Amino acid sequence: MKSLKLNELKSRFKSKFSELSIENPSDSKHREILNKAYESKKWIDNLDENNIRYWSGQTDQGAPLNLQSEIALNGPLIGPPKYLIKFFTQRNNSRELLNSLIDDIKILELIDGREVLQQNRIESTYGKTMTFKIEGVRVNTRWLRYIYLASRIKNQNLISNGKVWVDIGSFYGGLQQILYRYFPEARIIMVDFQHQLLRSYLYLNYSYPNAQHILNPDLSEKFELPGFYYLHPDKIFEYRNLKVDLLSNFFSIGELSRITALNYINSKLWREAKAIYSVNRFISSPFYDKTYDTDLTIIDYLADNSRKIRYLDVFPIGVFLRINRNVFGIKRFRNISSNYFELILT
Questions:
Q1: Which of 51, 159, 173, 249 suits a disulfide with 55, CB 3.0-4.6 Å?
Q2: Helix/strand/coil (H/E/C) assignment for every residue in the chain
Q3: Hey, what CATH topology would domain 2-345 get?
Q4: Higher model confidence: residue 23 or residue 132?
Q5: CA–CA separation, 217 vs 242, rounded Å?
Q6: What pLDDT, on a 0 to 100 scale, did the predictor assign at position 342?
Q7: Residue 307 φ/ψ, nearest 5 degrees
Q8: Distance CA 268, CA 107 (A)
Q9: Backbone phi, then psi, for 231, in 5-degree steps?
Q10: Among residues 198, 55, 33, 205, which one has the least CA distance to residue 130?
């Protein structure tokens, strides 16, 4: 029955996005992701519960390895032999990640996010992923990030029932799934590449089968119905009469080329949204560690002087994490080269 529903959803997706060509972004990170996503001509057929949120191009960003309990849970995901090898070769990585997740849970408590975490158990969501149990709750890196962002959006009253929320770069829809629980009458518009839209379409259909799920709506769409709308980046700027209450982007605009990023930041959609919620790097590519193909900085996000800064601080989730990475030809544990800002503009 589950596979039948999956095939029906895929067929519906194919029919709605058949006219769109495969994307070719100008930045190297997204080109690599898309090359992996579309390397198989049957990429739609190959997508299922096992790789909807955890695949070679993007993952839930990890959880510590635990030999006693995790192997039973994650064996089908990466295979027991590979799991054992990873356990013994990545113990230091796991230790650093565990410490970071513990810090993240403490940070959630500072913004009253622990209740949101308790109400949104990752083990009850659709799709295989890696998790770790901390203080009675299963988590991973991306899920704690989603819980934090959802808690902020709730606490800051950035959306409510009946309002329009546009999120640029939604991946598999985890953040949308959390917030729809609290705002089932909101109109949630997700903007992403085709392979990501398919992920979110499947994930959210399994999460909320009775909600409205509108794929690639035509330009006459007025977004009056509550539910989920799935839009390709090439089309989002064509909806001239779209009135947005919240426009959000988390991490991805700062990874785009300057030209592409400014197309968003300078767009009518961005300028006229009632609120902007953004988490991106203070400096996308510091001179000593060129991370992305761009020179974007926080100054670019603050260029519109008509906006009021409601909130600005360092994004705290994962802020204490040290990653084993290669810089200057030396591989060792380091923090990332630039912290992320958390910005709310009104």
A1: 51
A2: CHHHHHHHHHHHHHHHCCCCCCCCCCCHHHHHHHHHHCCCCCHHHHCCCCCCCCCCCCCCCCCCCCCCCHHHHHHHHHCHHHHHHHHHHCHHHHHHHHHHHHHHHHHHHHCCCHHHHHHCCHHHCCCCCCCEEECCEEECHHHHHHHHHHHHHHHCCCCCCCCEEEEECCCCCHHHHHHHCCCCCCEEEEECCHHHHHHHHHHHHHHCCCCCEEECCCCCCCCCCCEEEEECHHHHCCCCCCCCCEEEEECCHHHCCHHHHHHHHCCHHHHHCCEEEEEEECECCCCCCCCCCCCCEHHHHCCCCCCCEEEEEECCCCCCCCEEEEECCEEEEECCCCCEEEEEEC
A3: Rossmann fold (3.40.50)
A4: 132
A5: 12
A6: 98
A7: -85, 145
A8: 35
A9: -120, 140
A10: 55
Which pair of structure tokens corresponds to residue 173? Answer: 């829809």
| Cα 179 to chain centroid, rounded | 13
What's phi and psi for 250, nearest 5 deg? -120, 105
Residue 72: band (very low, low, confident or very high) from pLDDT cuts 50, 70, 90 = very low
Closest alpha carbon to 141 in 157, 154, 125, 122: 122
Across 14-23, 49-58, 200-209, which has the greatest mean pLDDT?
200-209
Token match 């982007």: residue? 249
Residue 195: pLDDT over 80: yes
- Percent with pLDDT over 90 in the chain: 82
pLDDT, greater one: 42 or 62: 42
Give the whole-angstrom CA distance, residue 8 versus residue 6: 5
Q: Nearest Cα to 166, choosing from 273, 44, 288?
A: 273
User: What one-letter code names the amino acid at 40?
Assistant: S
Supply the pTM of this predicted model. Answer: 0.94
Q: Which residues pair with 73 in a beta bridge?
A: none
pLDDT at site 64: 87
Q: By the 8 A CB rule, do 61 and 140 touch?
A: yes
Please tell me the predicted confidence (pLDDT) of residue 1: 46
